[in-house]
Design brief:
The complex is a heterodimer of chains A (322) and B (357).
Chain A lengths: L4 E15 L5 E15 L3 E5 L6 H8 L7 E6 L2 E2 L5 H4 L3 E4 L13 H12 L5 H14 L16 H13 L5 E5 L7 H18 L2 E5 L3 H7 L2 E6 L2 E7 H6 L4 H8 L6 H6 L30 H5 L5 E2 L7 E2 L5
Parallel strand pairs in A: 3-8, 3-9, 6-7, 7-8
Antiparallel strand pairs in A: 1-2, 1-4, 4-5, 9-10, 10-12, 11-12
Helix pairs in contact in A: 3-4, 3-5, 4-5, 5-6
Chain B lengths: L27 H5 L10 H11 L1 H23 L9 E2 L2 E2 L13 H8 L18 H37 L1 H15 L3 H16 L5 H37 L2 H9 L3 H37 L11 H9 L7 H28 L6
Classes of the chains: A alpha/beta (322), B mainly alpha (357).
């Protein structure tokens, strides 16, 4: 594998303009100055509560939105609007809702075959069909399902179709936008294990977006925690779980349900006061200070940058006080 | 936790939990009963099945089929032309004016008495001794042709305009929709009258071929439909596309690298095809009505070409003496428009997913 990182995101900003009155507009900072990297064959988990900008990060990297600022370097090449087409073959996306992410008027064969059609990756009809059947087998679907329509499948099967579609172009990197949160818990495990198998077989790297810390911890090599458009902590999965530093990560981890009543009774939950501030009226300084029990005056003045705690640990935290 | 000999957890004697030992594993055959996949069925076939079950829609389809068969084959069977004045043995039959249905004029009667054979005047004849049935058939032809052709114009322009406006969005959408609003505000009848006056002088100079046969009025009807009536369709399509655009599969297609043209053709239009079919089916009767109305006020097709509206207008003069001359074209208009409307309703019930149960 080549040296360096597969994906390098630097100071990514994504602001949306929102109409607030007849002529007034305000900018909504969905993603504000986010930097991270993903290595070859690595899985980076991205967690955070609803509306914190996880999905927007994924879509900005894919250039489904035109970023307001910052750079994305993929495999040594900067991603710009002009150079996006060849990158669509190397970077793919799996969507959250398996019900709305598949066109109801297309057969499974056509859904999985669409990337092949768009990038003209076959020379004969037979080759196209063989590739599609190979992909279906890879994700655990029967070949006889090829002529069926998406609405005839269960949620888990539909998500497999979505994954097969993402794999059709043989990508190096897949952005998984909450791929299991719409599924039953029993199906979640199957799909997660499939992601891990595919990673071993094909060597793909993932950006795994989720709001379930247990799921992310299971699949990720490293985890990034987002709050209100900013990354507040990045650490290797085990380190984040064992030694969380940022107060928001602490409270997130304390909210993870544990399937053992005895442990739960011993645990003390850190319950955050108040609501998430509106991203249109961000607090000054650190975005978390309004709900943070360690907040000081300094937090209101200046936003802390991500700094590494312990040399070479890869554990980065954005907090003044911890 | 202790397990019993079957590998099942031991039950606490006081527990209310169901005794797992009472359960047997399912046999292979029983497992197969859980496979509930039905025959694969596409959306279109589903809709057609529903349509066939709707008695009104089926009746209107049969009605339309009959009308179509008659207007296609009647001119081949009936030996009269729509502009042909009845003559017997090469002599013009002046007594054949305003005959009642299935009646003969004196000359014709004499010819039949001599042993000759004539085709009956099913609807009688008009004031200029022309067979009224064949005129009604040609009138229905003209009306249906205008209805279908005008709807086609509306469909093509409306779909292209609406899908571009809805898909691109933003400022483009704003400008395109304001143009639609302006066109919506134009008085259509006034434009038709003005256009037919202007076109008349332009077209009369090269009086040949199909243009001359259709007449400037008919051409102006098409132009007006092409200019004005597509706006409703464009608005409808734009609304549909805005709704479909928010689905994840459009985003998925974009992330694959599909271009906008492909996304519109492969993803958006197939998902609003039912709405397009329904709107077109309902557009046809409205175009027929417009044509009939214009013909009735004298702005329709050029004489001697009949249309149902102009036939009704001509029948007005002798309404007291020959009321059936108004009844025939009026009933044909009603039948065509009613069955197209009912068919449109049936299509909507069968294909509109929001009405599905």
């Amino acid at each position: 594998m080549p040296n360096g990182n597969l994906l390098e995101v630097k100071n990514l900003k994504q602001y949306f303009t929102v109409k607030t009155g007849l002529l007034k507009t305000a900018s909504l900072k969905a993603v504000d100055d986010v930097s991270f990297s993903v290595g070859y064959g690595e899985t980076l988990g991205l967690v955070g509560e609803s509306g914190c900008g996880k999905t927007t990060v994924g879509r900005s990297i894919m250039r489904l939105y035109e970023p307001t600022g910052g750079t994305v370097v993929f495999d040594g090449k900067e991603v710009t609007a002009q150079s996006i087409m060849p990158l669509r073959r190397e970077m793919q996306m799996v969507f959250q809702d398996p019900y709305s992410s598949l066109n109801p008027r297309m057969t499974v064969e056509d859904i999985i075959g669409e990337p092949l059609d768009v990038h003209k990756l076959y020379s004969s009809k037979k080759e196209r069909r063989d590739k599609i059947l190979g992909l279906m087998e890879l994700v655990g679907l029967n070949a006889e399902h090829a002529t069926r329509y998406a609405h005839e499948f269960s949620g888990g099967q539909r998500q497999r179709i979505g994954i097969a579609r993402a794999l059709a172009v043989n990508p190096k990197f897949i952005i998984c936008d909450e791929p299991v949160s719409a599924l039953d818990v029993s199906i979640q495990a199957q799909v997660i294990n499939m992601f891990e198998d595919l990673k071993e077989k094909l060597g793909v790297a993932y950006l795994f977006i989720a709001h379930d810390l247990l799921v992310v911890h299971h699949i990720s090599d490293r985890i990034a925690v987002m709050y209100l458009g900013k990354i507040v902590e990045i650490a290797p999965a085990g380190e984040l779980n064992g030694n969380p530093i940022h107060p928001y990560t602490l409270s997130l981890l304390s909210a993870v349900p544990i399937p053992d009543p005895k442990t739960v009774r011993k645990k003390n939950r850190i319950i955050l006061e108040g609501d998430v501030p509106s991203p249109m009226r961000m607090p000054s300084g650190c975005p978390f200070r309004t709900r943070c029990r360690y907040a000081t005056e300094q937090c209101a003045i200046e936003c802390p940058a991500l700094t590494e705690r312990g040399a070479g640990s890869g554990h980065m935290v954005a907090c003044w006080n911890r | 936790m202790k397990n019993n000999e079957n590998g099942m957890p031991m039950k606490n004697p006081l527990s209310l939990q169901i005794d797992l030992a009472k359960f047997a594993p399912a046999t292979e055959e029983e497992k197969r009963q859980q496979d509930v996949m039905s025959e694969s069925s596409s959306f279109f076939r589903d809709g057609m099945k529903k349509l066939v079950k709707n008695p009104l829609a089926v009746a209107s389809m049969i009605m339309l089929a009959i009308v179509l068969l008659v207007i296609i084959f009647a001119p081949m069977i009936v030996p009269y032309g729509y502009d042909q004045i009845i003559s017997v043995e090469g002599k013009r039959d002046k007594g054949a004016k305003n005959l009642e249905p299935f009646a003969w004029s004196e000359m014709e009667q004499a010819y039949i008495d001599k042993g000759g054979k004539l085709f009956p005047h099913i609807f009688g004849t008009d004031a200029m001794s022309r067979d009224y049935f064949i005129r009604c058939v040609y009138g229905a032809r003209v009306s249906l042709f205008i209805g279908l052709f005008a709807s086609l114009i509306v469909l093509v322009i409306g779909v292209i305009w609406g899908s571009i406006s809805g898909y691109v969005g933003g400022k483009t959408d704003l400008i395109m929709m304001r143009i639609v609003d302006i066109i919506y505000a134009l008085p259509d009848m006034l434009i038709i009258i003005l256009l037919s006056v202007v076109l008349d002088s332009i077209l009369s100079s090269n009086n040949t071929g199909i243009v001359a046969r259709l007449g400037s009025n008919m051409i102006s009807i098409f132009i007006v439909f092409g200019l004005l009536y597509w706006v409703g369709m464009a608005r409808l399509i734009r609304g549909q596309i805005l709704a479909i655009k928010s689905n994840d599969y459009i985003l998925a297609a974009r992330s694959i690298g599909a271009r906008p043209g492909r996304i519109i053709r492969k993803h958006i239009l197939p998902n609003c095809i039912s709405v397009i079919i329904i709107a077109t089916a309902l557009q046809v009767p409205s175009a027929i009505f417009t044509e009939s109305f214009l013909s009735f006020v004298g702005l329709g097709v050029q004489a001697p070409m009949p249309s149902l509206g102009s036939l009704a207008n001509a029948a007005r003069e002798g309404l007291q003496s020959y009321p059936y001359k108004l009844v025939f074209p009026a009933v044909i208009i009603c039948l065509i428009v009613l069955s197209l409307n009912l068919l449109g309703d049936g299509l909507r019930d069968a294909f509109d997913p929001k009405l599905r149960k």
